[in-house]
């Protein structure tokens, strides 16, 4: 009857409201159970508001606490479809209790929904010419049961009386609607709170299920199902997204960093449920299962196992969330995984996945989930960083297409539409950008090396003879003499690896400038070998090779590092100039 999550919720509730948590617990276990000796007959005014019948009356908080019920979204149970309230704020409760201690009064109503079957209204005698447009006076009979009064607004005002000595003596004003549908209750809750305080966009998306669960339009109901599915994935302890989905009530952390909005939008942009068929006639997608409840169950089943396959392949990366070295279990990462799943479903489109049961449907895509996880498992630390650092629509597209490419390497018949065109464009773009970076690195190296050699050589000494190794000098002289159109001095004929040899030859001078990272001399200069290898790719298009996104990113990282080194040397030289001369 109760699982670990239920117990956590009720323990938290007791800590917030004390003894009134008992009635919330009983309402959950014994809904509709008659409460002995709690039937009540009170004076009330019956009226119409927004087409719905409602009553206004005053009542003691002690009585109302026994029959009232709030279904908090923090509880997270899938069965609580009719849930729109946020968890109570302990700080706010304490402030209201202090206000009650000071004999404060509440001029606004607590808004309820009372079950119609538990009510009877007896009109009192009125003057014959009395108008009934503004309400009818009478007696309201409440046949009390647990969970017969749902709180729409005012839960803090009511629960502040829990355990308070004034709970039996005070009175609170109530506006009670009669038999409102859950969607109307949620809509009323939003209307009230939108006027009084801002309502987060994420909260509206969380409440979409309550507002539109029974909508006649399939496309609207689908979004309600998606909303509920995302919330369940975030609240189910067995889900790889457990405690990782950021809702309106939760605080952001390194682990809870996936917004409900991002997952809601990513799934909503797919054809998992509905798509336009021929002549714009709607067709149902692979996650559709007929009813709302069955579709919700199918969605959660498939997505839990899909993401679990990915998490199992790279648990260390997944578990870091948005922390240092993370980047997969974040908004962009999980959105990419959803986009890849969309490609997989499209691959099987002709086989009518909708006909498979939940288990068989996942078995159909399981090998793709495993392959995607294996692809992520091959990432180096630098490749993980590149994956995380991609930004905007272009970055999201690049992540998605590279995942598609990795799956095609495993499944030769997997050929998503547009993949070949994208890879061809990326190849041309990567090599063009890479060539630009290599040119910058070569020009910067020439300036750095020459300036440093000249500044470090004793006055009157030749930087060429003392600073450049003899084999390099001989090769450069030969190239210089073979050039019929000499474009400058010897320094114009250095190859990229010549700078590595010069730096190695005069390591004491160049270690602070060209030594990258840690380790010995060879390791600190190995970045120049990397740049030279990539130079051969971008300068020789006929080879048919292209820079990977990781290689391009590494080149750009070296280029930026070298730019900073150049700036530091310029600043240092300016500091050494005599200020009088400088002026």
What does this structure look like?
This protein is an alpha/beta fold and 583 residues long. It folds into three domains: 4-199, no CATH class; 208-417, no CATH class; 429-575, no CATH class. Helices cover 54% and strands 10% of the residues. The protein has 25 helices and twelve strands. It has helices spanning 4-17, 21-29, 61-67, 90-101, 155-159, 182-196, 201-206, 208-212, 218-235, 260-268, 292-313, 315-319, 331-347, 358-377, 381-389, 392-410, 419-456, 463-467, 470-482, 496-505, 507-514, 521-524, 526-538, 549-575, 579-582; strands spanning 40-49, 52-59, 68-69, 110-114, 119-123, 136-142, 149-153, 172-178, 245-246, 258-259, 274-276, 282-284. The strands form three sheets. Strands 3-7-4-8-2-1-6-5 form an eight-stranded mixed beta sheet. It has a two-stranded parallel ribbon with strand order 9-10. A two-stranded antiparallel sheet has the order 11-12. Strand 1 (40-49) and strand 2 form a beta hairpin. The radius of gyration is 35 Å and the shape is elongated. Residues 576-583 have low confidence and may be disordered.
């Amino acid at each position: 009857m109760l699982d670990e999550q239920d117990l956590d919720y009720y323990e938290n509730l007791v800590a917030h409201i004390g003894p009134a948590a008992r009635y919330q617990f009983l309402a959950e276990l014994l809904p509709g159970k008659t409460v002995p000796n709690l039937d009540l007959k009170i004076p009330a005014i019956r009226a119409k508001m927004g087409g719905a019948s409602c009553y206004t009356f005053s009542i003691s908080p002690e009585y109302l606490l026994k029959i009232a019920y709030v279904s908090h979204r923090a509880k997270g149970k899938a069965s609580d479809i009719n849930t729109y309230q946020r968890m109570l704020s302990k700080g706010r409760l304490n402030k209201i209790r202090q206000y009650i201690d000071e004999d404060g009064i509440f001029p606004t109503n607590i808004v309820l929904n009372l079950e119609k079957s538990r009510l009877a209204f007896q009109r009192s005698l009125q003057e014959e010419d009395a108008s009934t447009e503004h309400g009818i006076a009478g007696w309201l009979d409440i046949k009390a049961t647990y969970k017969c009064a749902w709180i729409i607004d005012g839960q803090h005002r009511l629960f502040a009386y829990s355990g308070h000595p004034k709970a039996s003596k005070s009175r609170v004003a109530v506006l009670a609607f009669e038999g409102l549908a859950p969607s109307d209750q949620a809509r009323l809750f939003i209307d009230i709170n939108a006027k009084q305080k801002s309502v987060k966009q994420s909260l509206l998306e969380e409440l979409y299920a309550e507002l539109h669960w029974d909508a006649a339009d399939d496309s609207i109901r689908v979004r309600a199902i998606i909303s509920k599915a995302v919330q369940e994935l975030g609240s189910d302890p067995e889900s790889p997204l457990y405690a990782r989905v950021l809702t309106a009530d939760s605080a952001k952390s390194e682990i809870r960093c996936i917004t409900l909005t991002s997952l809601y939008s990513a799934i909503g942009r797919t054809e998992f449920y509905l798509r336009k068929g021929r002549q714009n006639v709607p067709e149902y997608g692979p996650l559709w299962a007929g009813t709302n409840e069955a579709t919700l169950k199918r969605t959660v089943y498939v997505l839990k196992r899909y993401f679990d396959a990915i998490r199992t392949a790279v648990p260390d990366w997944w578990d870091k969330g948005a922390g240092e070295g993370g980047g997969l279990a974040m908004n962009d990462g999980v959105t990419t995984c959803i986009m890849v799943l969309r490609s997989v479903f499209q691959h099987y489109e002709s086989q009518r996945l909708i006909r498979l049961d939940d288990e068989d449907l996942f078995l159909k895509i399981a090998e793709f989930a495993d392959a995607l996880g294996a692809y992520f498992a091959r990432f180096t630390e630098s490749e993980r960083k590149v994956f995380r650092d991609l930004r905007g629509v272009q970055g999201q597209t690049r992540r998605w297409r590279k995942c598609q490419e990795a799956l095609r390497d495993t499944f030769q018949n997997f050929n998503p539409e547009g993949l070949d065109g994208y890879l061809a464009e990326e190849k041309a773009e990567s090599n063009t950008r890479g060539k630009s970076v290599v040119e910058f690195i070569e020009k910067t190296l020439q300036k750095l090396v020459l300036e440093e050699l000249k500044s470090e050589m004793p006055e009157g000494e030749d930087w060429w003879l003392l600073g450049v190794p003899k084999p390099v000098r001989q090769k450069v002289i030969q190239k210089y003499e073979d050039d019929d159109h000499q474009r400058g001095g010897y320094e114009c004929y250095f190859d990229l690896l010549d700078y590595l040899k010069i730096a190695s030859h005069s390591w004491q001078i160049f270690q602070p400038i060209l030594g990258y990272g840690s380790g010995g001399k060879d390791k600190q200069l190995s970045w120049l070998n990397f740049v030279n290898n990539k130079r051969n790719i971008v300068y020789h298009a006929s080879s048919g090779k292209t820079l990977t996104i990781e290689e391009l990113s590494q080149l750009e990282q070296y280029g930026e590092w070298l730019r900073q080194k150049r700036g530091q040397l310029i600043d240092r030289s300016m500091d050494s100039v005599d200020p009088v001369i400088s002026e």
